[in-house]
Each structure stands twice: as structure tokens, then as C-alpha cells.
Amino acid sequence: MFSDKFGQVVAILGGQWGDEGKGKLVDIFSEDYEIVMRTNGGANAGHTVYVNNPTDPQKSEKFIFHLIPSGILHPGKVCVIGNGCVIHIPTLLEELKVLQEREINTLGRLVISDRAHLLFDYHMMIDALQENLKGKKKVGTTGRGIGPCYADKTSRIGIRACELVDFPQFASHFRENVRILKNMYGNFDYSVELEIERYREYSKLIQPMIKDTGLYLAQAFREQKKILLEGANALHLDIDHGTYPYVTSSNTGIGGILQGSGIPPQKINTTIGILKAYVSRVGSGPFPTELDNPIGEKIREIGYEYGSTTKRPRRCGWFDVPLARYAVRINGFQSINLTKLDVLTGFDTLQIGVRYFYKGQELDSVPADHLEDVEVEYIQVEGWKEDISKADSFQSLPENCKRYIQKIENLIECPIELIGVGQERDKLISRF
Ligand code: GDP
Ligand code: IMO
Ligand code: MG
Questions:
Q1: What is the whole-number distance in angstroms between the Cα of residue 239 and the centre of ligand 1?
Q2: How many CB atoms lie within 10 A of CB 32?
Q3: Catalytic annotation, pick one of 27, 47, 241, 320
Q4: Helix count (H) and strand count (E) of the chain?
Q5: For residues 69, 74, 75 and 81, what is the CA-based torsion angle, rounded to 10 degrees?
Q6: SS3 string of 366-426?
Q7: Active-site residue 19, yes or no?
Q8: Which ligand is nearest to the CA of 23?
Q9: What CATH architecture does domain 117-209 belong to?
Q10: Most-buried pick from 123, 157, 302, 372 (CB within 10 A)?
Q11: Ligand 1: residues whose CB is within 6 Å?
């Protein structure tokens, strides 16, 4: 049982630029944990879960979650969308519909925070507008309206889920919000009254799910329920600690988990960091160990590195130690799940980026600026050719593969206790 090792409340967070494999681990842990909560971000996230087909691996079932926490496939588990999230209701309803079509019963198992902000189509329009205006400096967002919705939240003009309970108040706030935004961004084409009518229907479906989730969580904690906090995006996309301005608009690190759930810090027993055995990034921004060459393309093809949300090809590069150490430091990771190690099978040699230099000087961390100009010092290690996708213990991995893991573990100064060797649930090695 994972909870015997990691405790009653566990946070699972990405430590690079996203898509490390958070969804897979959350799904696996959800067998044991009773409540799974998303705490930040919106449908910019794309968390993939593969469910084994015991007789035919080719027929494993794939699910991608954007807003619904990745524990929903486990019957009886409660999934919570926390106050730190931004929710586009049509996307949420579509996700629920797809699950129903696949015969996953979600009735009564999805809870939405009354304090979560609602994201509307106009946020997506403004997202596109801002990206166009930025030209070459565009962030390369997912186009899901995330930045504009969080901007409304901090500007104190946002609309929260609790408002759906009083529809006339919602409608008048909605009109007012669009009026303010049209004054700011020009008269973008948007049919306010039509949208309000759509939301009249949505609100009937959503209202029963809306709760004070902070209170719900506190009660569940007292009842000894096991709680999983599912981070979205990743530390280097954090609005404060990430590679600003090429970041998302929420706190994606441990701070976001606390803010976005309302759980106090001392209640979290373990913070698990997810790190890919290499690095990938979607969208713009600096990437010191990027392999803009056939090796990077090879990793992309073997690892199928295409966005779960936007299908964009992900940029790929070697494992970056300073990047990972920074995430370990800020998030206080106590344990690491190194994922997608199987993707590196077959390389003669592998490189690990170990130190950054800027203008000839070694840097002691990831710099706030000029990351695009750092030079990376690499070490080279021997690769392995053996298929590791069926390995079920650390001992059974090839020697060079074990060395690669141990090397990274020593360099990042955090134990790698879980190792991913494939997409499916059973492709996870525990070292405890
Ligand atoms: P997330 O956003 O962090 O949940 O990650 P994504 O789902 O966007 O991307 C990770 C991709 O890698 C998904 O397609 C996963 O199914 C897949 N994946 C996760 N862990 C492993 C692993 O250990 N090996 C392989 N080959 N694929 C993995
Ligand atoms: P998961 O949870 C990878 C990136 C976008 C873009 C930047 C800002 O699946 O790991 P946004 O739409 O949030 O304003 O985009 O952040 N980004 C992600 N990249 N995985 C994610 O989520 C991401 N969420 C945001 O590509 O560069
Ligand atoms: Mg993803």
C-alpha cells in the first residue's frame, strides 16, 4: 500500500515543464487513496492514464483528463476540483460525457469548490488576442484562456462557481464582466445573452457538485480519509518560480497545492516529485538542455512526445540536474518518481546536464533571467540496450540503467523511489 509508505496526505507535483507523467501516478495511487483533488490550473493540463487490457496490451485503454482529477477511473473515489482551479464548464461536461460513454459512473463523485473561478469562452478569445499582440514573444499558451481567467481573479472581477447557485446574480455579474473586458480589449465578437442562456442549463447540472471543498477536506482528514493532491503543469511553469514570462498563470508548486486546496502545510505527509528521465517542453521559452536535432526527434518519436492538450510536438532534451534540483528545493520533494526511463533504451550513450555557466561563471541555481544564454556542462554515461518494459524490480534493471538512476539520484539529492518503465499501471517499479 502506497499510503503505508507515503502517509495519509500526499502531493504529487511535476518538477520540469509539465507532462512528466503525473496522471499515471495519480491514477495508480488512487487505488489506495479515497479523495483526489486538483488544486491549480485548468484545462491547460492534459493528464494521461492507460488502463491495462490483461489479454491484449495493444488494446490498453487511454484516457486524457484536463479538468477532472486523474483518480476518477477508480469506483467510489471522490474527485475534487479545488478553489485554485479555473473551470471551463463546457469542457468539464464534455469530459464527464466521454466518461459516461465509456461506462465510468461519475455520479456523486465529482465535487467542485464554491471558490473556484469560472473560465468562459471570452477568456480564450483574449488569450488568442494577447498571444497575437506578443508576436515573436508569444508564450505559446495552450489557448485555453488560463492567463486571462487568472487575471480576472487577481483583478477582482472574476466569477466564481458559488455564483451559479444564484442565477440572476450570475447573469448580471457576467454582463458586467464582459462590459469591462470589452472596454479593455475592444469590442470582441461575443454573444453575451446566448452564453447566459447556455449557462442557465449548465448551472442546473453543476450546482449539485458545488461545495465548500476546504471544509469538506478538513472533515475527510479528521475521518482519516486518505487524500491525494494532484498538481497540474509543473514547477518551471510556476508564475513565481518558473521561467517567467514563459510560464502559466498559477502557482504550480507546493504553494499552489496549499492555496488551491485550503489544506494546511503540516498535514501533507509526503511531497512526491515527478521527473521525466529526460526533459520536454511545449510552447516557447528557454530550454538549456534542448536537443534541437535528430537525437531530440528520436526521443520525441519513441516517447510519443506530443501535447495531450494541444497535440503540439514537445521539445525534448537531456535530463537537466540544475532544473531538477531547483524543483526539489522549492517543493521540498521527499521522493521522486522518475518516469519514461524505457524511452531511453537503445542509446549507446546518454548525457546528463549537470552544471550551468553564464559568461564563464558557474551558476549556483537556475537564474531568474538569461536562462537562454547559459552554457550547460554535461556528463556522459553508458546506455543500455535491454528491454526494460517488463522489469518489475530495481535489481532486475540492466546495470547501466541502474547507474543512470543512481547518478541522477545523487546529483539531485533526493531518493528516486518509483521508476516508470511504460505507460500502463503495471509499468511502475517501487524501490521500497
Ligand atoms: P502529465 O501531464 O504529467 O500527466 O503527463 P502527460 O500525460 O501529459 O504525458 C506523459 C505521457 O507519458 C503520457 O502519454 C503517459 O501515458 C506517458 N507515460 C507516463 N509514464 C510513462 C513511462 O514510465 N513510460 C512511458 N513510455 N510512458 C509513460
Ligand atoms: P500538464 O498538467 C505542459 C505550458 C504551455 C505554455 C505555458 C502557458 O499536462 O503537465 P497556459 O495555457 O497555461 O497559459 O500556457 O505553459 N503548459 C503546459 N505544458 N504541460 C502542461 O500541463 C501545461 N500547462 C501549461 O504549453 O508554454
Ligand atoms: Mg500533460
A1: 23
A2: 16
A3: 47
A4: 12, 20
A5: -10
A6: CCCCCHHHCEEEEEEEECCCCCCCCCCCCCCCCHHHHHHHHHHHHHHCCCEEEEECCCECC
A7: yes
A8: 1
A9: Orthogonal Bundle (1.10)
A10: 123
A11: 14, 18-24, 46-48, 50, 308, 339-340, 342-343, 420-423, 427
| Catalytic residue (one of 19, 152, 320, 342) | 19
Ligand 1 pocket mutation pick from 48, 60, 65 by most atoms within 8 angstroms of CB: 48
Q: Ligand 3 centroid vs 406 CA: distance in angstroms?
A: 26
Q: Over its length of 432 residues, how does the chain's per-residue pLDDT go in tens digits?
A: 999 999 999 999 999 999 999 999 999 999 999 999 999 999 999 999 999 887 887 788 999 999 999 999 999 999 999 999 999 999 999 999 999 999 999 999 999 999 999 999 999 999 999 999 999 999 999 999 999 999 999 999 999 999 999 999 999 999 999 999 999 998 888 899 999 999 999 999 999 999 999 999 999 999 999 999 999 999 999 999 999 999 999 999 999 999 999 999 999 999 999 999 999 999 999 999 999 999 999 999 999 999 888 889 999 999 999 999 999 999 999 999 999 999 999 999 999 999 999 999 999 999 999 999 999 999 999 999 999 999 999 999 999 999 999 999 999 999 999 999 999 999 999 999
Distance CA 419, CA 66 (A): 24
Specify whether 4 is catalytic: no
User: Which CATH number is 275-432's, of 3.90.170.10, 3.40.50.720, 3.60.21.10, 3.40.50.2300?
Assistant: 3.90.170.10
Cis peptide preceding 69, ω within 30 of 0 = no
Closest among 46, 67, 35 to 214, alpha carbons compared: 35
φ/ψ of 70, rounded to 5, equals -75, 10
Residue 355 parent element (H or E): strand 349-358
Q: Cell numbers at residue 135, please?
A: 508576436
Distance 46 CA to ligand 3 centre (A): 4
Q: How far is the CA of 22 from the centre of ligand 1 (A)?
A: 7
Q: Which residues contact 258 (CB under 8 A, 6 or more apart)?
A: 264, 265
| Sequence-distant (≥ 6) Cβ neighbours of residue 400 within 8 angstroms | 381, 382, 383, 384
Question: What is the domain partition of the chain in residue ranges?
Answer: 117-209, 275-432
Cα gap 246→326, rounded to integer Å = 17
Single-letter amino acid code for the residue at 101: E
